[in-house]
Amino acid sequence: MLNVEDLTLHYGHSQILHGVSLTARAGAVTCVMGTNGVGKSSLMRAISGAHPRSGGKVVLDGEELGVLPAHALAHRGVAVVPQGREIFPLLTVRENLETGFACLPSAEHRIPDEVYQLFPILKEFLDRRGGDLSGGQQQQLAIARALITKPKLLLLDEPTEGIQPNIIQQIGRVIGLLRERGEMAIVLVEQYFDFAFDLADEITVLRRGEVIFSGAKASTTRETLLPKVSV
Predict the structure, then answer these.
(1) How far apart are the C-alpha atoms of 83 and 73, rounded to whole Å?
(2) Residue 71 and residue 49: Cα distance in Å, rounded?
(3) Distance CA 121, CA 113 (A)
(4) In 10 A of CB 149, how many CB atoms?
(5) In degrees, to the nearest 5, what angle opens at C-alpha 14 toward C-alphas 21 and 68?
(6) DSSP class per residue in 135-184
(7) pTM greater than 0.90
(8) Is 99 helix (H, G, I), strand (E, B) or coil?
(9) Which residues 6+ apart lie within 8 Å of 136 measured at CB?
(10) In the chain, which ranges are continuous DSSP H helix?
(11) Nearest 10 degrees: CA dihedral of 112, 114, 120, 124?
């Protein structure tokens, strides 16, 4: 579903990503791991169009994409759950969910029941403002908003950050369910090693903006991988 080749990215004169390549298959979870500041979020921003890449090639579902802005990529099936969630605090839960309609034809402007099956708390809080939700509830809302766009590619940037353990478990179950359905590719950026390793089918490890490991989870072990991720 996604093929990234030799991607580079600069912030001004500073080069952040150095020839990063990765693939993500529909029905699989590709985890991007590494310590703070190695370029994981920058990679998500480059793939999603939130920051233009400097070079390299991105192919989505067989179509080579130019350097497109985020809204154009969203219409092509790229959905992002950003680090920090970035929900609209003054809009209600319902209104936050409805922002996902921007990527859909008018005939599909409805919140699917599946959203409430995956995240039952959202149905209870439809008329509550997003800013009044807990961090874990806001994370559920951000994921649900992304799913409403019916993505081909779902980018999850640090979904466990600042979240209580029971919500982390629920998010893990939802990611597992989405993978089993086989309808989208999932790229998961995560520092919580056990969470990421348990969900991963493929793993890419970054260090200083470069790939130092890339392969199937079956080709490595926790003990071998953890030192690469922690340095």
Answers:
(1) 18
(2) 8
(3) 13
(4) 20
(5) 55
(6) HHHHHHHHHHHHHHT--SEEEEESTTTT--HHHHHHHHHHHHHHHHHTSS
(7) yes
(8) helix
(9) 163, 164, 166, 167
(10) 40-48, 70-75, 93-98, 113-118, 120-124, 135-148, 165-181, 193-199, 222-230
(11) 10
Pairing of strands 29-33, 185-189: parallel
Find tokens 């982390």 and name the residue.
168
Tokens 């500041």 found at: 37
Residue 33 has which token pair? 């791991």
Token pair for 151 = 């993505």
Return phi, psi of residue 79, to 5°: -120, 140
Question: Could you list the pLDDT tens digit for every one of the 231 residues in the chain?
Answer: 999 999 999 999 999 999 999 999 999 999 999 988 899 999 999 999 999 999 999 999 999 998 899 999 999 999 999 988 899 999 999 999 999 999 999 999 999 999 999 999 999 999 999 999 999 999 999 999 999 999 999 999 999 988 999 999 999 999 999 999 999 999 999 988 999 999 999 999 999 999 999 999 999 998 899 988 886
